[in-house]
Amino acid sequence: MRQELDNKFVTIMVVPDRKEKVRKWVVSASHLKVFAVGFGLVTILLAAIVVDYVSLLSQSIENKKLIAENSALRSQFKVLDGKLTSVESALDRIKTFATKLRLITAVNDPDRGLNLAMGPLSRQKDSVDELDLPDTDRAPASTMVDEPVFKPKSLTEITRGELAEESDRDYAKLSVRLDRASRVSQLREQGVLELWEQLQDRSALLSATPSTRPVQGGWFTSRFGYRLSPYTDKPVMHEGLDIAAAPGTPVIATADGTITFAGYDPGYGKLVIIDHGYGVESRYGHNSQITVAYGQKVRHGDVIGAVGNTGRSTGPHCHYEVRVNGQPIDPINYILDE
After folding, report:
1. Would you call 268 helix, strand, or coil by DSSP?
2. Rounded to whole angstroms, how far apart are CA atoms 302 and 207?
3. Which class for 273: exposed (0-12), middle (13-18), buried (19 or more C-beta within 10 A)?
4. How far apart are CA 190 and CA 13, in angstroms?
């Protein structure tokens, strides 16, 4: 190709390799410039179209990938939502069970001392169940857990559209529910532990409260209160309950406790004293023999001696006393089958 430079025209010549006719074109310089500019613009446009197409194709592939991931997340959400619903239902059942248990056992009953005539027992202040308070009145979750149980993962790939907004809402709702479940579970655990401690305390109190006769099959010969002394014929205070029975009849502990005296006393004869705790003490006098020793722990129903006629006694019987904070109380109040 041969180009002639001229102010008006440009000659383009094509010379084939073989013996063929030489072709020649004469083009106006202005037309050539217009063609060159047009060709450049078309080239740029085609390049832009190709780039845009490649970008759209890439975004389409990425969107398909994100949609597939979102579908998988939705499936996982459903599974996790079902499990969380089960946990919430279980927590509700635990609360219902604990409430019923409190009512059945009367743990928070003002008569928790079972009217032991020992004065008011110290009991915990009535507490308000935080679970019954509105969410706005409760302590923030940060006081219950150091870090959030579930922190939504940022979906930076999805920057626009309802897909991102809906996923964010799902994450937020799930996070709130998990955070609440965490707080509730900790409160439930604390409440159950407190209930267990209170029940243990009540169980110990009941086990340490005299509730049966010290001698089975005997009969009452003298009750608590003033009576004429068999020795002086004058009114004296009888601080216990006399239960007559055949000599050698077993004498049993009427509640759990610790032996604080097991020996001879001039008035009681062979005497056993049991400290039951909570200010309660029981005494068993006039035994023919003693089968326990000082400091020994006994359980309700354990044999501690045998009916006798030792000390100031007019016949074989068991002199039974119950003392609360050192004061003698009518033992009949502590024999539940009477």
Report:
1. coil
2. 13
3. buried
4. 99
Dig out the tokens for 110 from the structure: 């003002």
**CB half-sphere exposure, 187, CA atoms < 13 A:** 22
pLDDT confidence of residue 171: 67
Does residue 111 contact residue 135 with C-beta atoms inside 8 Å? no
Main-chain phi, psi angles of 45, to 5 degrees: -65, -45
Q: Give phi and psi for 98, each to the nearest 5.
A: -65, -40
pLDDT of residue 63: 83
Residue 255 has pLDDT above 70, yes or no: yes
Residues 6+ apart with CB under 8 A from 205: 113, 114, 278
User: Cβ contacts of residue 231 below 8 Å, gap of 6+?
Assistant: 312
Residue type, 47: A
Question: Strand (E) positions, the chain?
Answer: 9-14, 23-28, 219-222, 225-228, 235-238, 241-244, 250-252, 257-265, 269-277, 280-290, 297-298, 303-307, 317-324, 327-329
Place of tokens 């965490």: 182
Write the pLDDT tens digit of every residue in 206-219.
Answer: 788 888 999 998 88
* pLDDT for the residue numbered 338: 64
Token pair of 289 as six digits: 């023999």
What does the alpha-carbon distance between residue 281 and residue 209 come to, in Å, rounded to a whole number?
9
Helix H or strand E encompassing 183: helix 162-207
First CA to last CA across the chain, in angstroms? 134
Question: How far, in Å, CA of 27 to CA of 32, rounded?
Answer: 7
Instruction: Summarize the confidence of residues 309-318 as an average pLDDT.
Output: 92
Q: What is the pLDDT of residue 286?
A: 95
For residues 287 and 308, is the Cβ–Cβ distance under 8 A?
yes
158-161-166-171 Cα dihedral, nearest 10 degrees: 20
